[in-house]
Amino acid sequence: MRGGGLLQLRQSITRRISQGDKKAVARRCFATEAELKKTVLYDFHVSNGGKMVPFSGWSMPIQYKDSIMDSTLNCRENGGLFDVSHMCGLSLKGKDCIQFLEKLVIADVAGLAPGTGTLTVFTNEKGGAIDDSVITKVKDDHIYLVVNAGCRDKDLAHIAGHMDAFKAKGGDVSWHIHDERSLLALQGPLSAPVLQHLTKDDLSKIYFGEFQMLDINGAHCFITRTGYTGEDGFEISVPSEHAVDLTKAILEKSEGKIRLTGLGARDSLRLEAGLCLYGNDMEQHTTPIEAGLTWAIGKRRRAEGGFLGDEVILKQLKEGPPVRRVGFLSSGPPPRSHSEIQDDKGKGIGEITSGGFSPCLKKNIAMGYVKSGSHKAGTNAKIVVRGKSYDGVVTKMPFVPTKYYKPS
After folding, report:
1. Domain that holds residue 68
2. How many CA atoms within 13 Å lie on the side-chain side of 381?
3. Which tens digit of pLDDT belongs to each residue from 326-384?
4. CB neighbour class for 403 (10 Å; exposed up to 12, middle 13-18, buried from 19)
5. Does the chain have fewer CB atoms within 10 Å around its N or its C terminus?
């Protein structure tokens, strides 16, 4: 979930800047520096050596003074702090907000306990993914969710259109877009002990996927124990006027072990964790079944349907999908998006959607879609990179074991 082609963007920008082609960089990212939106942490990023790049209409740090590889490793060993304020948080409220949302997503929202959440997918009439999102049932009449920055406009238009129709039939639902708040992602093994210094609430009682509203460093925050790295950690929605102070406090309490971390390492970390990147690994023609997100469809929803595209999705659930998202290890240069996947006889069977060199494993890793039947772990394949074929093998994901904080 959560983004666009970060590694490809980094490589493109680095190459073009090295060639002195700054105008091409602006064209590639579809915005000039003056047109880009800035988070409240923009000046803090720049003063701390952040290399700012255009991303989904925002100026965002792709890395800081350390390398992307070092930053990735430090997040796994200690911790990383990410500014993800470009993402869109919103609340749905009203006695019918759950009934409304369940028309748009595959999750069993009604079945969630208050204060718990799940990953879900917004679907279209053909069963394709409009976006993925982490949603939380705060209370029976309040849902909090976060959607991807690059999908904000289409997501909000999609939700608004269906909300108007729902309300016209007497449904009680309204929304608030949290543009007054910023979003920080604190990830890694030191996340909880460092954050605990800044709140009186016992963080050990908040498990993976759970949500609370509590005071952190004197600010009223929404906190979800989740993230996009495979590590333990938190996403913290903080009033924007307190975002810089909270960032400084986290870094100070970690005594330099938790570092500001940019989009480059965020992409490496999520790829190692086997997590989808919307726009690369999941698009509007991809169903949740094909994307390997069958687990996100609630048991009740499998029986009842009731969401957009349910006929297509439930049919695939019963009969199997035509293609499946799988992981790969490979030799040669790292595979990139759109690299062809072939069987051992050279016949095309699919395409890579994300790939790169794993800083933690010191190996090439990738994910992509192959025809059903070629998806089993251990299946040998060929991956074509710059016109040459290299050995690859289908591999179970995550590539790096996850460390989510769950009850023992």
Report:
1. 6-85+180-272
2. 35
3. 999 999 999 999 999 999 999 999 999 999 999 999 999 999 999 999 999 999 999 99
4. middle
5. C
What's the first-to-final CA gap in the chain, in angstroms?
27
Which helix (H) or strand (E) segment holds residue 182: the answer is strand 181-187
Residue with the two structure tokens 């040669």: 332
Which CATH number characterizes residue 265's domain? 3.30.1360.120
CA 308, 312, 315, 316 dihedral sign is negative
Residue 218 has pLDDT above 80, yes or no: yes
Cα–Cα distance measured from residue 64 to residue 19, given in angstroms and rounded to the nearest whole number: 21
CB contact at 8 A, 124 and 130:
yes
Regarding whether 267 and 334 lie in a shared domain, the answer is no
Q: Is 235 annotated as a binding residue?
A: yes
- Domain membership of residue 341 (yes or no) is yes
Nearest to 1 by CA among 267, 323, 265: 267
Residue 376 lies in a domain: yes
Do residues 117 and 135 make contact, with C-beta atoms less than 8 angstroms apart? yes
Integer angstrom CA distances of residue 54 from 149, 252, 286: 12, 28, 26
Residues 195 and 264 reside in one and the same domain: yes
Dump pLDDT digits (tens) for 302-329. Answer: 999 999 999 999 999 999 999 999 999 9
For residues 209 and 119, is the Cβ–Cβ distance under 8 A? no
Q: pLDDT by residue (tens digit) across 260-303? A: 999 999 999 999 999 999 999 999 999 999 999 999 999 999 99
Tokens of 7: 């590694």
Per-residue confidence band for 34, with pLDDT thresholds at 50, 70 and 90? confident
- CATH number, residue 382: 2.40.30.110
Q: Tell me how many domains the chain contains.
A: 2
Q: Are residues 268 and 332 in the same domain?
A: no
Last residue of a domain, one of 211, 237, 272: 272
